[in-house]
Amino acid sequence: MKNKSNFSTEHLQYLKKQRNRSILVNVVRIAFLAFLLAVWELAAALEWVNPFITSSPSRIVKTIGDLYTGGTLFYHINTTLTETLVGFFIAVVVGYSVALLLWWSELFRKISEPYLVVLNALPKIALGPLIIIWCGTGSEAIVFMTVLIGLIVAILNMLGGFMATDESKLLLLRSMGASKWQTLTKLVIPSSLPTFISMLKINVGMAWIGSIMGEYIVSKAGIGYLIVYGGQVFKLDLVMSSVLILCVLAAVMYALVALLEKLVVKNVD
Amino acid sequence: MKEVLRFENVCMRYHSKQGETVAVENLNFSVKEGEFTAIIGPSGCGKTTLLSLAAGLLKPTQGKIVTSGVSFGYMLQRDELFPWRTIEKNLYLPLEIKGTNTLEQRNKALELAEKYGLKQFLKSYPSSLSGGMRQRAALIRTLALNPDVLLLDEPFSALDYQTRLNVCNDVYKIIRQEHKTALLITHDISEAISVADTVFVLSKRPAKIVAEHSVVFLEDEPLKRRENKEFSKWFEILWGELNA
Questions:
Q1: pTM for this structure?
Q2: What ipTM score was computed for the predicted complex, to two decimals?
């Protein structure tokens, strides 16, 4: 690679073009959001639309401010965040372990296949009443729902990753006389790392679906609770504010997984 | 010369729901110590089965495979270096598997790597090496366990033509220098002629030996052999037998 000072003018122009392009993308992104917010605010302020139904950016800010001064903002955020994270980790850990077991035993894998397919297709919300009766009306029920939604996805994704291990590399290890345990630790687990990360990404989404759905069914606190409550008493400012908070939380969690990906997935193909 | 590997009336049948496949039938041949033996056959004739049998990864349906207590090292079509390990860690892989990951063994592997020009790449990941270098690293990995016999399963077929000739030359020299016995399986006639002391020709499936040749050249280097007038004569003979 040449030094910067040695680049041809052509190459410098190319670099400049690339840089301008990425600046353009960012500017337009922000401008688009600002435009949307401005139109929304203006439409509500000039009563083109009924702000009671559509809410508006300023009303959202005020609602969030009120929640904060009322001292309940972080209480609700914490409730949902805890449920989501606990459910997420249980689903990921249990899912990964079950997938390992299924990889290990072909018999087990074949036997469980139809069960997994049916459980995967089943809309988990159908189990709502059962969950309330089994787990009560506390956070446990919501965590249980979150786990249910993420677990099967985690199992199927990881199993797919384990089973996709390169045949030639398996043969190579066999020719070295590797045991099944060695094959697992030296090859199957490291080579499925990208699948693991993509499974985490999918499960971030699943966990939020689980916790919010769980709160819809049964809850006394949380972002999902605020949404349902806001809808029932026609406080759409509260609904919009809650959705906005959710967007931010989900984006942060996804960004953390993406950061993890950058740190660990460097040299797998 | 001592035989290190002998196939005696070996038969191999595969079973699947679709039916039964006879991959190998009544196979008789032997590999002598210190020799470079090549087996050529049409594609799909069960060549890889044959190597798996030799390495003891498969048990023959009938017949016997006699090995005189030698150890085998396997080299595959592609290098199969683990992309998440550095070259150094890749070389240690067989040691880890065999549970002989001692400082002494590691140093031996490093010595080999150094001797054959891999020293500067030890801390690199495979993705930053050329195809030829990667295949050389794969050979050193195979040699790390100090096997008596190298089983080569078309080890150059995934490389482009120019690299293939160079790497073949390279690998040949290393194998000779380390005084290893080698059994090469390939569909490439000229590759077989350029390296082998003995060439066996296999028939279509079920694979049987149809000819055995002692290939003698004055030159002891694949690239030089290719320049020899004899080379094309051998090619014609083997081509005829392969297509018979």
A1: 0.83
A2: 0.86
